[in-house]
Amino acid sequence: MRWFRFAVFISLVTVLQAGLVDIIAIKNIKPDLLLILLVFFAIYCNTSEAIITSFTIGFAADIIGSAMGPRIISFGLFGTLLAYLRRVIAIRKMPYQSAVIFITSFLAGALVHFLTFLKGQPTPPNICAVLFGISLYSSLMGPFLFLPIAWCMRMRAYRFSRH
């Protein structure tokens, strides 16, 4: 892993998530680019690198979030689970990647909102609709971003081979 390149890339994506993703929002539902990155690194990195990147991405998500802590815990937990799950199940085809992004986004979002609720922060009233919309939008968009992310990070994404 090229860690300097990773730090610059995560910083750029965090800025995009904080401000420019509003342009492609549909009815105030926008994709979670940082969660897409979490799934990408959990799939294509070795286990220790995937765990480090998931906690780092969670920290970046907390910086632009409303409360510090819930996303680093949630992203770290689900990134670690995905890193170990990848050892057992191959997640290389686009439909599988989309399903993993949807499930991870929904579960991580639910945990984030639960931890935010425990901290006493306000949560949106229609939380299920928001979680479902963000998860669906991210899962439809995510697998198409995997190849450009791999190119930017100079990683090999064996999408079309049998590895």
Shape: globular
Number of strands: 0
- Mean residue pLDDT: 90
Strand content: under 5%
Gap between N and C termini: 20 Å
CATH class placement: Mainly Alpha
Number of helices: 6
Percent helix range: over 70%
What is the makeup of the main sheet?
Answer: none
Question: How does CATH name the architecture?
Answer: Orthogonal Bundle
Low-confidence stretches: 159-163
Topology:
Elements: H1 3-19, H2 33-44, H3 47-64, H4 70-85, H5 94-118, H6 127-153
Describe this structure in words.
With 163 residues, the chain is mostly helical. The chain has a single domain (3-18, 28-153), classed as Arp2/3 complex 21 kDa subunit ARPC3 (Orthogonal Bundle). 71% of the residues lie in helices and 0% in strands. It contains 6 helices and no strands. Helix 3 (47-64) runs antiparallel to helix 4 (70-85). The model is unreliable at 159-163 (pLDDT under 50).
Defining key terms:
single chain; 163 residues; mainly alpha; Arp2/3 complex 21 kDa subunit ARPC3; 71% helix; disordered C terminus
Give a quick rundown of the structure:
With 163 residues, the chain is mainly α. Helices cover 71% and strands 0% of the residues.
